[in-house]
């Protein structure tokens, strides 16, 4: 759901940026380490401890054999990412180690983790930064603002000016939201557009169903759909939208496709800088 946080956490433990991590949501829980391991947390802000000491976000941590990482609760944000040196070693399915829960495949037996599960880690691909290395705040998405940039979608010309003014008002993330899509509560968009023949969809597409209430497709979105796609969230801002909890607000701002592409390049550059700083910290240690 938050690919930036996943990659940043991996950089903090010396992994490839796309190594398998834990995506943690909802409540608390505990991990116990059966061997030494480098750990980092990113994404949602969590209250917790590692070996009895409070954990800092976006910081390289070292777990000793027998240590426990306890997450008490998430203070802000919706998805916490826990990266472990070597990455989680589960089978590769369709070129991915991810779990797809609706299809019950991938990850660990295609299901959510439960009490007593054991996760094997792979061989560390690189050397992790020294404990205490921290990501500068200016390299992170502006999670707290709730401002998400959008560009016109493939059916944007079917919507009148009134609808475009409405989509730029404030919306609230509905409790009826999950990894497939976020329903947005707020002013209804004026539309008399019927369902269209199914065409391609993607994460970030903003569909407008008959009731005029937008739905933003997310990581587990279907690949096709018949609702008109008025707009699409900038790839750079998908992490900001993903981290909004039910009941929190979001405000869209319209930008051009070219501006969206520049923002995506800037986000990729920020990740490159994080990786470079992590590698440089080794030479200073």
Structural account:
- With 285 residues, the protein is of the alpha+beta class.
- It folds into two domains: 3-135 and 272-284, Jelly Rolls; 143-254, Cyclophilin-like (Cyclophilin, Beta Barrel).
- 18% of the residues lie in helices and 29% in strands.
- The chain contains four helices and 17 strands.
- Strands 9-16-13-14-11-10-17 form a seven-stranded mixed β-barrel. Strands 1, 2, 3, 4, 5 and 6 form a six-stranded antiparallel beta sheet that branches.
- A hairpin with a 7-residue loop joins strand 10 and strand 11.
- The radius of gyration is 20 Å and the shape is elongated.
- The protein starts with a helix and ends with a helix.
- The relative contact order is 0.17.
Summarize this structure briefly.
This protein is an alpha+beta fold and 285 residues long. Helices cover 18% and strands 29% of the residues. It contains four helices and 17 strands.
Q: Classify the helix fraction into a percent range.
A: 10-25%
* Order of H and E elements: HEEEEEEEEEHEEEEEEEHEH
Class of the largest domain, according to the CATH hierarchy? Mainly Beta
**How many angstroms does the end-to-end distance come to?**
33 Å
Radius of gyration: 20 Å
Largest sheet: number of strands, sense, barrel closure:
7 strands, mixed, barrel
Structural class by helix and strand composition: alpha+beta
Number of domain units: 2
Percent of sequence in beta strands: 25-35%
Please, what is the average pLDDT? 94
What is the general shape? Answer: elongated
> Order of strands across the widest beta sheet?
9-16-13-14-11-10-17
Query: CATH topology of the largest domain, which one?
Result: Jelly Rolls
CATH architecture of the largest domain: Sandwich
| Residue windows where pLDDT falls under 50 for at least 5 positions | none
How many distinct helices? Answer: 4
Number of E strands: 17
């Amino acid at each position: 759901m938050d690919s930036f946080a996943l990659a940043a956490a991996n950089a903090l433990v010396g992994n490839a940026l796309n190594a398998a991590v834990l995506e943690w949501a909802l409540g608390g829980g505990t991990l116990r380490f059966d061997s030494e391991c480098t750990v980092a947390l990113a994404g949602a802000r969590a209250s917790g401890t590692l070996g009895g000491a409070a954990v800092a976000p976006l910081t390289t941590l070292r777990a000793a054999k027998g240590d426990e990482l306890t997450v008490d609760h998430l203070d802000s944000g919706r998805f916490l990412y826990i990266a472990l040196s070597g990455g989680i070693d589960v089978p590769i399915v369709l070129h991915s180690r991810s779990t797809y829960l609706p299809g019950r495949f991938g990850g660990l037996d295609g299901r959510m983790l439960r009490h007593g599960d054991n996760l094997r880690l792979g061989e560390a691909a690189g050397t992790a930064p020294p404990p205490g290395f921290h990501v500068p705040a200016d390299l992170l998405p502006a999670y707290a603002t709730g401002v998400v940039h959008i560009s016109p979608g493939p059916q944007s010309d079917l919507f009148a000016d009134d609808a475009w003014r409405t989509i730029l008002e404030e919306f609230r993330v509905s409790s009826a939201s999950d990894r497939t899509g976020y329903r947005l509560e707020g002013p209804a968009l004026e539309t008399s557009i019927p369902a269209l023949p199914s065409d391609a969809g993607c994460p970030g597409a903003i569909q407008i169903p008959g009731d005029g209430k937008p739905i933003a497709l997310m990581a587990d979105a279907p690949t096709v759909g018949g609702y008109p796609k008025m707009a699409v969230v900038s790839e750079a801002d998908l992490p900001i939208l993903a981290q909004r909890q039910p009941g929190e607000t979001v405000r869209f701002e319209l930008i051009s496709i070219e501006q969206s592409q520049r923002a995506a390049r800037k986000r990729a550059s920020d990740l490159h800088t994080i990786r470079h700083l992590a590698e440089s910290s080794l030479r200073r240690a």
